[in-house]
Amino acid sequence: MPDDKILTLNAGSSSIKFALYSANAKLDLELHGQVENIANSANLQVTRSGAEKTSEPIAACDHAAALRTILEVVHSALDGASILAVGHRITHGGPRFAAPRILDEANITTLKTYIPWAPLHQPYNIATVEGAAGIFPDAIQVGCFDTGFHHDHPWHCDVYALPRHYYDQGLRRYGFHGLSYESVLSQLKTQAPDLTRGKLVVAHLGNGASMCAIVAGRSVASTMGFTALDGLAMGTRCGAIDPGVLLYLLETEGMSPEQLSHMLYRESGLLGLSGLSSDMRILESSEIPEARQAIDYFVHRIRTELGALAMTIGGLDGLVFCGGIGENSSQIRARVCHELAWAGINLDARANQKNETRIGKGKVQVLVVRTDEEKIIAQSALRLARR
Ligand code: ADP
Questions:
Q1: C-alpha span between 323 and 237 (Å, rounded)
Q2: Of 280, 358, 353, 355, residue with least CA distance to 319
Q3: Which pLDDT value is given to residue 69?
Q4: First-last CA distance in the chain
Q5: What's the 86 CA to ligand 1 centre distance in angstroms?
Q6: What is the assigned CATH class of domain 5-145?
Q7: Exposure class string for 297-322: b at 16+ Cβ within 10 A, else e
Q8: Spatial distance between the Cα atoms of 177 and 304, rounded to a whole number of angstroms
C-alpha cells in the first residue's frame, strides 16, 4: 500500500507553488514545482525527487487553469496513494486566526472578509482551497497563516496611533512572511542554536520583502503592518509611505481608490523606481542609472529598518538573510552590511560571495538561510491530519 501524501499549495498573485510529501515523520519530498507568470506566458516547473527540474510553457490564462494543471501533475504522481491533507499558505489570518487550522466553510467565509486586507494574495489563496477541496474531497484542507507568527506582538508594536476603536475593528500591525520566519527559526535550531534563544533580525527579501525582530524565538516587531504594503520597498510594492501622499493623490490628483491601489501594489517599488523591472537580477545587471537608484533605495530602507528593529529589541546577536534576493544576492547583502562594524556586523567577503551559510566574522552572527515555507505548511497539515 503506497504511503499517504501531504500536498502543499502556495498561491501568489502570479504564481502557484506546490509540493508533495510522503506523510511520514520525515516528510520526504517527492515532487515540487510551480506555475509562474499566470495569465502571461505561463510556465510549469516540476522537480521530481532525484531528477532534474523540467520546465515547459503551458496555457494557463488564470489561477483556476494553473491549479488544474498542478493537480493533474500531482494526480499522476500519486500512483494509487491518497492525499491525506492539503496545506495552504493563507496570507491574512486577521485578528482571529493564528495557529494552523482545518478550513471548514465557516472559516473560509471569515477569511474571505480579509480579502481587502491582502488583495494581491488572499483571493487566490481561498480560490486554491476551494479548488483543491473539489478535487480531493476526502483530504482535509489546512490553512497556515502568514500573520500567525506575529500574533503575540507587544501592544505598542501592534498598533497605529489612530483613534482606539480602529484597533478593535482589526486595524493592527499584523506582519507577514510568518511561515518563512518559522522555517528560518527551525533551521537555526541546528545551524546556530544559540540564536534561537537570542536577539535576531531576519530579512526576508523576495518579490515581497519584510524584516522581523525576534527574541527567543518570538516575533516582537515586523516591518509589515495591516497589509503587506508597509515597510521595505518590494518588487512592485511601495513600502512605507507618508499617508499624506495618499491623501494628496486621492484628493488633488483625483485618483480613484482602485487606481491608487493598483499603483501601490503593482506599479511601485523596484519596478516603479527603475522603470525597468521588479526583478533584482535584471536591475543588478543593468547599466541605467534608474536601476542603480532603485537598488540604492531598496538597500537604504533595509538598513533603516535594521537599525529600528535592533533598537526595538535592545541589541542584536544575529542577522539572517532569506528569500530570493537574500539567499542569492551577495551584492545586496554586502551593501546592507557596509560599514556596520560599529554595530558588530562585519561580513566575511569570501563567504558572502560564495553564498555560504555563515557569512559574518564580527560579534553579530550573519547567516544566509534557505527558507522553506512549504515544509512548515506540510508539518502543520500532517499534525492536524494525524490528530
Ligand atoms: P517571491 O516573493 O515571489 O517568493 P522570491 O523569494 O523567489 O520571490 O524572490 C524573487 C526575487 O529574488 C527576484 O527579485 C529575483 O530577481 C531575486 N533573485 C533570485 N535569484 C537572484 C540572484 N541570483 N541574484 C539576485 N537576485 C536574485
A1: 16
A2: 358
A3: 94
A4: 22
A5: 26
A6: alpha beta
A7: bbbebbeebbeebbebbeebbbbbbb
A8: 19
Say what the pTM is: 0.95
DSSP character string of 62-77:
SHHHHHHHHHHHHHHH
Residues 207, 278 contacting (CB under 8 angstroms): yes
Exposure string over 54-86, b if 16+ CB within 10 A, otherwise e: eeeeeebeebebbbebbbebbeebbeebebbbb
Nearest alpha carbon, ligand 1 atom 19: 324
Minimal CA–CA distance to 132: which of 97, 92, 83?
83
Ligand 1 atom closest to Cα of residue 323: 6
Taking CA atoms only, the protein residue closest to ligand 1 atom 13 is 279
How far, CA to CA in Å, does 15 sit from each of 34, 115, 156, 311?
7, 18, 35, 36
The Å distance, Cα 1 to ligand 1 centre, comes to 40
pLDDT of residue 40: 79
Q: Domain 191-368 class?
A: alpha beta
- Region(s) of the chain under CATH 3.30.420.40: 5-145, 191-368
Which parts of the chain register pLDDT below 50? 1
The grid coordinates listed for 232 are 521595505
Please tell me the distance from the alpha carbon of residue 178 to that of residue 150, in angstroms, as a whole number. 7
Q: How much is the pLDDT for 29?
A: 96
Contacts of 259 (CB under 8 A, 6+ apart): none
For the CA of 284, the closest atom of ligand 1 is 25
Grid cell, residue 180, equals 518563512
- Answer yes or no: are the C-beta atoms of 377 and 89 closer than 8 Å: yes
Pocket of ligand 1 (CB under 6 A): 12, 206-208, 235, 279-281, 284, 323-325, 328-329
